[in-house]
Structure to design on (222 residues):
């Protein structure tokens, strides 16, 4: 994967994808509408306060990188903007509806658990159950043209690990931490097996001693 977005670029791209899905009649977006979407208080984390100049500068950067384009409608004096990030005729990056919904939510809200993604991405795409989210995350983490997401170390007291998108660059420590967790689990399993084998060996020794004792008791006196 070669696409790397700054935090502001990630917010803008996420907003364009979201509005293309949820309000197609208002898409592409004017600069004012895009700025409002970036600063929206719902479905955003963190909540930002970007001015139009910053959003315009971010759009200009995305346009230079062919990740967005300016759309001038017939007879309209207001420039409008649309993404070319994925699922368009201009690029090779393609996602299923479920993958796109998950990526969009990660761009808008940052790292989230599968349970959170199931609840939040359902407004963007049909999601049957948690297994469908898990399958999409697994695919996004394994794709040959990716990976696009990574599992983060589980936070203390949390039942689920969070996932993060990788369009902001590699997350240092994520894979290493996950490997340490796996190694620790394997070490714990090995220790448990060794303890179980030791207990079984001790029990077998006791049974053998009992059998020998019974054998001696049952033997005729010479």
């Amino acid at each position: 994967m070669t696409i790397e977005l700054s935090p502001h670029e990630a917010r803008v791209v996420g907003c364009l994808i979201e509005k293309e899905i949820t309000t197609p009649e208002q898409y592409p977006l004017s600069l004012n509408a895009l700025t409002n979407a970036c600063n929206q208080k719902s479905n955003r984390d963190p909540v930002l306060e970007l001015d139009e100049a910053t959003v315009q500068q971010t759009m200009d950067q995305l346009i230079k990188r062919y990740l967005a384009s300016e759309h001038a409608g017939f007879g309209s004096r207001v420039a409008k903007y649309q993404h070319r990030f994925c699922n368009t005729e201009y690029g090779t990056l393609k996602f299923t509806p479920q993958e796109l919904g998950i990526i969009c939510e990660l761009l808008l809200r940052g790292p989230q658990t599968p349970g959170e993604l199931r609840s939040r991405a359902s407004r963007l795409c049909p999601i049957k159950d948690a297994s469908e989210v898990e399958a999409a995350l697994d695919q996004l983490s394994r794709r040959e043209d990716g990976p696009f997401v990574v599992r983060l170390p589980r936070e203390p007291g949390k039942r689920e690990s969070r996932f993060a998108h990788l369009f902001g660059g590699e997350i240092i420590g994520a894979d290493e931490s996950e490997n340490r967790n796996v190694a620790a689990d394997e070490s714990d399993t090995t220790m448990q097996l060794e303890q179980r084998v030791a207990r079984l060996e001790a029990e077998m020794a006791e049974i053998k001693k009992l059998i020998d004792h019974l054998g001696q008791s049952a033997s005729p006196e010479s």
About this structure: DSSP finds seven helices and five strands in the chain. Confidence is low (pLDDT under 50) at residues 176-187. Residues 36 and 50 are 9 Å apart (CA to CA).
